[in-house]
Amino acid sequence: MTTALTISMLVIYIAVMMGIGLYTTKKTKSVNDFVLGGRNVGSWLTAFAYGTSYFSAVVFIGYAGQFGWSYGVSAAWIGVGNALIGSALAWMVLGKRTRIMSNHLNAKTMPEFFEKRFDSKGLKIASALIVFIFLIPYTASVYNGLSRLFNMAFNLDSEGSYKIFIIAMAIITAIYVILGGYAATAINDFVQGIVMLGGIIAVVVCTVNNQGGFTESIAKLGEIEADGGGFDKLFGPDPINLLGVIILTSLGTWGLPQMIHKFYAIKDEGSIKKGTIISTLFALVVAGGSYLLGGFDRLFCTLDSSDTSKSLIGVNSNGKPEFDAMIPAVLKAALPDLLIGLVVVLVLSASMSTLSSLVLTSSSTLTIDFIKPKMKKHDDKKEIIIMRVLIAVFLIISVIIAFNKNASISTLMSYSWGALAGAFLGPFMFGLFSKKITKASVWTSFVLGIGLTVGHMILFGFGWFPELAKTAASFPLNLASPINAGAITMILSIVVVPLVSLFTVKPDEKHLDSVFSCYDFKMIFNCF
User: How sure is the predictor about 30, in pLDDT bands with cuts at 50, 70 and 90?
Assistant: First the structure.
């Protein structure tokens, strides 16, 4: 009965998505329509697109499970940081200026922005490569989380079923993005966002009630002494490393092309203030609820085979608990059969919206920034066809990576966000505000962000140097953690860009005057 109900809900949900894709196909007649929805997307659709692109199975399954286990209920601070820093502050600082300058420069992608803002084709090519390469592991992590949830919902544990679900989700994503482009993703994101809001509230309430209510659940967490205890405390057992997670998952949105892209497409500057409020509330409910849910996973999961009252969680080949299996175990134990179907649709909604944003960003970047300059004649129809083909290629590569079940969701996402935001955050943010930022400082941020990320992967990501990893992990701030490494690259990007600009060749004044002519006097002193 439960399986039949879940399948029915999925069929209805997928049918709605496909219908939206077919509907928006008629409205997608140019590259501008396909990539930006004609720059005519309202505040509600943009805010929900931002939020649903932000949160996916990576957060709900991977991060909530791992950080709930590590930090207890204090993991909910991550959701608060996501709402205040990753949503509210990002919209307030970047939203209006991004909309104005990207429209003025006629930039459809972040690499195109770098080219026209800093007058450098080299920056465009380098950033396009970075986008395509480092969005792939993030996409793979989303598939990883989705497949684990589906295996839980349908009681399937075989390797074959894991791969089948990944392939199926890739095909569904490809169809509706290929059909309608950004317009399809924006409308679908709104529908998906409503499902996410209702679903996460229901799931958290049911989970807490399963343990006797909120107060009783907190008391039970306080009785757990494993790993030093403290899982019921306001700031948890490890506030320093908790801060690293907050920085990575909150500040990262400021430099991620698939997130910034939403500001390019919003209808007008007036929609940004309303979108800020909607996006912040959405993040507070969805992210706060997800991490709070994860904070109670020790009440449902155990690593001790003698504790038959809880779900036994396995250990990966690297010796770490199988964090990605924790939230599915919580849901299986805490939710009534009727809600299992809702949760599957909830996580599918969150993940499909993120996937559509990722594949659209990647394919448009390669087409506009790599292929279009080599075309002898501008042809919108041909460019859209190329983008659609590249969407399929991008998804195939991501699926192959996702087939590796030992690749932790949080690790894949951390390296992806660390590389992208570590390279782009400083150059993009300062590029919107200051005429003093130089090309050399942008190159420095690119090299530093990618260099530190790849270096960390080599030293700690593949398990090649176990003793070095053990030593790095012994510091108060765990230097072996890809999460902390990503947070450090983001902060360095913000510090390095203005610093290097002080000592390198200044930009051409005439070019700068042309770029910044889009800002009028009133707007400069009226940014929220």
Answer: low
